[in-house]
UniProtKB/TrEMBL annotation:
InterPro entries: Brnchd-chn_aa_trnsp_permease. This is AzlC family ABC transporter permease. It is found in: Cell membrane. Belongs to the AzlC family. Keywords: Cell membrane, Membrane, Transmembrane, Transmembrane helix, Transport. The chain crosses the membrane at residues 22-41, 50-70, 76-98, 134-162, 168-185, 192-209, 215-230. Its main location: membrane. Pfam families: AzlC (PF03591). It is a multi-pass membrane protein.
């Protein structure tokens, strides 16, 4: 029994550290989750479908992109392709953080389903001076997952009573958030060229072809523009 106490104490300490670290991100995600639920309801989903989507997809950016391009019947192939492009960064993130998490290989496959930008960043920072324990990973991942599932579901329920969020201008909130994130990358020529090309191509495709192809087209155009602009900058 005496030998079990240190292990229990270590697990609790690591879990509390995880909850403390993830708290700011979890709080910041609540209004975004509420907004997603309301927008999804306006697009024709039910609260149950919103909850199921958040539970099985668990990717805020990809979920917003899918809802933005949502039409009836849903274009599954196009939505899957757009989601893949948006979440492709997770391949590199998983390769980076996977070896640093103290879990078995099968456990890592399950654990990395819950990886987000926030949990990856916190774990990478923690790995600089200490191991990323199972308790720490479970704490930050579970807290953010439960928070996102609850906030999107509540947003869906409230949205069904409030009506179309576009009446309040709330449908533009996530777009404004992304504009702020892009602006935070600075004003280098590569950033400006990438953002401009992606926006123009996405707008043109949306106008002439329609959703959801503008999402994938804008992403591909932005990647190509970034590559060309960066290569030209290196040569010069």
């Amino acid at each position: 029994m005496d030998q079990a106490n240190p292990l229990s104490s270590t697990f609790g300490r690591e879990a509390r550290a995880g909850l403390r670290d993830i708290a700011p991100a979890a709080i910041a995600a609540i209004p975004i989750g509420l907004l997603f639920g309301a927008v999804a309801i306006a697009k024709g989903l039910t609260p149950t479908e919103v909850a199921f989507m958040s539970a099985t997809v668990f990717a805020g950016g990809a979920q917003f992109a899918a809802i933005e391009a949502w039409v009836h019947p849903a274009p599954i192939a196009a939505l899957a392709f757009a989601t893949f492009l948006i979440n492709a960064r997770h391949v590199l993130m998983g390769a980076s953080i996977g070896p640093k998490i103290k879990l078995t290989r099968p456990q890592k496959f399950v654990a990395l389903f819950f990886m987000t930008d926030e949990t990856w960043a916190l774990s990478e920072r923690r790995a600089l001076d200490r191991p990323v324990t199972a308790a720490y990973w479970v704490a930050i991942s579970a807290a953010l997952y439960i928070n996102w599932l609850a906030s999107t579901t509540v947003g869906a329920v409230l949205g069904s009573f409030l009506g179309d969020p576009a009446r309040l201008g709330a449908d533009f909130a996530f777009t404004a958030l992304f504009i702020g994130l892009v602006a935070g990358f600075g004003k280098s020529r590569v950033t400006l060229v990438t953002a401009a090309v992606s926006a123009v191509v996405s707008a043109l495709v949306h106008h002439f072809i329609g959703a959801p192809w503008h999402v994938a087209s804008g992403a591909l155009a932005g990647i190509a523009a970034a590559y060309c602009a960066a290569d030209r900058e290196v040569r010069s």
